């Protein structure tokens, strides 16, 4: 035995080991590849031997070769062999090789499961350690599933060395096998308080990684982390925790307030720069999350900025870089505090380190103002000239353009200057951003009307000097600007000084070397220029010159007709023929200019880039539905996309009018107009439609004013932007002087009254733009809301880890782990035996995904009216299904991830209830009293079982409902259910309830907005008021009349005493005091609904209207005339309309600063938060914008367009509501009403 | 998360590569080459952070590197890592190497890349920082080496002898290829701990 071992190692002596291999490679510098290939052959031989030591040696060498870029996957099986050696030495070599070259695609991995399991449970801690380390690199979903339980056991190992590795690897397991997160989480949380600091650190590490991706699920751990932060002395752990808090604070502002103090202390006390920096970073995050309405944190901001300045001034480049990075975060919310350090940042632009210069550039972006824009850009232009690397220069170029064009050219006071800057930038050699410059030129020229003359002059100059730009075209992106130049000259040719010359420049033979799409624009715009030239000459009756121009075109265009580019060829030949025809006409002395210019008549409006996407989907149109029968799989493969011709889309080319027949044209135009008028989605240019858009938050409107010619419009020669700087300064001086004069005048007038005040430094508002310009807003569809759709990457593995963990831990709605959620444990047979009773649920499972997908779709789409029916059906189905599956926990885990998704989707806004009323299948098609022949409440439709006679329905229905409630209470203990309820009054209210709630949470108590109007022994009236979406001055009052008597009620007449502010709308011809006839009669026990429209003037105050209902009671033997008085209470809430709002639009709205704020505190509210939200949504017509745990933002809009925003927070029975609205008295009243709602319950 | 750890010398020769996400061998070499180009053209006295231009993902990731004598130590990390923390981690790594190899130089890394991997495995596991305490790391590494030695036992003796003989006979042993000041100087950085 011993002999054999010795013999084995003697064999081994003469094999190459790793050192020999390395040495050999170093000795064969010339023929390295050849040498290595012989080595690989040797290794192959060694791997064939039985001796494990030889194999391990070979694998070790392979690992080295892998680093050099050789594929060693062919040896995967041998690696597994070495891994399974009983000796630690070889095992380690095997695991190292595996960790370097195994991945999910390696098929032998599945052979390793048992070996790894064996190693994990090895008595030797280093065997376990090596296995864990290796596994962390190549874990696959299968391995994760099979080994999760073993690893979880190791988390409680006696040795901290194993514990920390096991804890750390859990993160990888979660990623590959998300189902393991819930069962493993309690133990992971336990490890946060492990006695060993290494284990603790590992647990913090894992939770931080998890929380970074899905922070909201980990908010409940905040107190624990807070404790750790104040107790731990390990800087690594502290940094991780502080970073984690940075991710959590945006979700929970209260946490931020608590953090400020300990963080400030740390900033003052720590000597570790890394910790200091992270503290500053998190304080910034806190300040950002608090930025709304917490002004007294200026000390903290000051501290941060101060510390950052120290970092930036440090000689250590790393600190400088990080300081700038953090500074840019502050800049977003507190630009003022950063702007005072402008000197420092400009200084950094001169730094030799490119990374630092780039960071400084980022900062500059946010620091510009009207006052300093020109100065900063001038500085940047200097850097452009100095810059050596093209990357940095390109970066500078894009930054200049970004800075200038930001927020709709907000900071540009002089567009001539900007055009000159753009023209100067075209002189950059070898830049890739020609396209960017071109689009800026186009944008400015189109949208700033006042600048066109100047722009055209500059562009003509560019075209004339095109040879300078196109030096070597192949790698020169700058020729893109010629595209813009040609188009601008053509489109606005009326501003051209000398169109003839420009035309000539555009038809030079050199043009034919330009890229095709640019040539196409050249040709098209040459035609436009031609039209202008013709008109000019014909106006001056200079037929000779006009004919010369035609001749020029006829001579030059054939060059383009021969172009290889299809687009150029087509346009050129078309225009050439046209010109030839015109030439003929000219020779006959026919006036053609009118007709030719008619080809290009009309103004083009800029359209927002997102406009197309924002066109709302018309009601009832399902874009996902098949129009025809879906083709079979095989068919679709045959249908390959046809080749597309010129892909380059010339955005600005107008449709060509090929039709000459005037009559036909006119007819078509008329037809189109008709069509457009009827099409609600056509973007009309009428002022009313524009107003709708401008009402939307965040869109500034810049008034149109005449050009103020204080600056000469023409600058001879190529423009120098510097000139403008001087001119601008002079202009400002002048203005200032004038202002002072005026002030003095005023003072003189007032004489002695006013205090002597210094005009002080120039403030932002003092600077008036040189040109008052109309920056044309880009067109958008009427109903589009400004929003960014930032869809998360669906492939992100972290998405699967978005699992609610709170209910695992404690609390009232604790949901224990279901049996199926337990981690798979190794058994002899992994397939559980099926009992016959389980067959039922197996059957039910496949239904799940189908149903779910349609449900999700439903929530995303706002296509409600269609959904209503669908959802009802679903509910029915679901309900039935639930009854079947009542006691089957198997259904729970599958539902889990979806639930959290649903939670997210609560933020998706519902459609307004009133719109729904119209769309609902309720038999009240229009909100007019005459037509509101409402039959039975439509909730009956939900319950097909309730096919009882009408008379008994109401009462019975109620009883049934109560019974159901009880049942639900019982079920609640078993498990939560998707709740739905019907209230036989709540017409359309149902959806608004769902809107505010997590559907999966506890059932809501029934709610109704209908409140009692009046009641006597014969009749009961309940009513609800809804704003009218279509008309800003109308509200609809729905009244349900219920006959309580045994007699027949008829000839009901509804009348209200109008006030100045509110009037009942009566049919034409009726007197102001006439009552309205209720359009139905009531048999005994029956109720019915009628609607009345009121017009209101002011909606900021609640008010009451007195009224009477008169009716005739007809019993078998007698009939009496009865009367019932009532008071209609118009609350401010009733003027609000549930309106969806996206969170970013909401944020913009809050930032705008136009809103007045107010707040409200409610004590002793002990209802679940989602009930609370649901109540606000339902009773006060709000919609939830965003909900994060016990904090939610809500939005509503009044019929007259006031925005009402609420921030609702709750903490142990106290609810605080911070509200903002542009109408303070409306807001006050709404808040009062909310308060009242909650005082009642 | 740490996405990758690379060590290469002033000429771009890889001395250690550890990717915590899978790439093909070709891509790995490309990443090493590109990273070398990015890092090597930077001056000594510029900051140690690099953004963009990286094959590894892009957006969130950052390169953090340190240059010691002839070697570059480059970590590619995402935003969950503290930049200064990683710089300190590199420092800990190099100091640990220095302790384990006794005055570490490039040649140690060239001939004992497996040992370097073993040391690294005690610091970073699957892209997450496992241990930052140098003494703890060294204790664990030593314990494992001791185990390896005891396993080799008698059987290992002849192999060791042969290896020693080989080294004696071959003139190009590390000592002879003296590349001057190759030893990695470990400056003291007080910023952390």
Task: List the main descriptive attributes of the protein structure presented here.
heterodimer; A: 1241 residues; six-stranded antiparallel β-sheet; 49 helices; 15 strands; 9% strand; globular; B: 193 residues; alpha+beta; Beta-Lactamase; two-stranded antiparallel sheet; 5 helices; disordered C terminus
- Annotation field: number of helices of chain A: 49
Distance between the termini of chain A: 88 Å
What's the mean pLDDT score of chain B?
Answer: 80
| Assembly form of the protein | heterodimer
Question: With helices defined by DSSP (H or I, 4 residues minimum), what is the helix count of chain B?
Answer: 5
Question: Would you give the CATH topology of chain B?
Answer: Beta-Lactamase
The structural domain count of chain B equals 1
Which structural class should the secondary elements of chain B be placed in? alpha+beta
Outline of chain A: globular
Provide the structure class of chain A.
Answer: alpha+beta
Architecture of chain B in CATH?
2-Layer Sandwich
- Global geometry of chain B: globular
- What is the C-level CATH assignment of chain B? Alpha Beta
Subcellular location (chain B): Cytoplasmic vesicle membrane; Golgi apparatus
Main location (chain B): membrane
Pfam families (chain B): Clat_adaptor_s
Protein name (chain B): AP complex mu/sigma subunit domain-containing protein
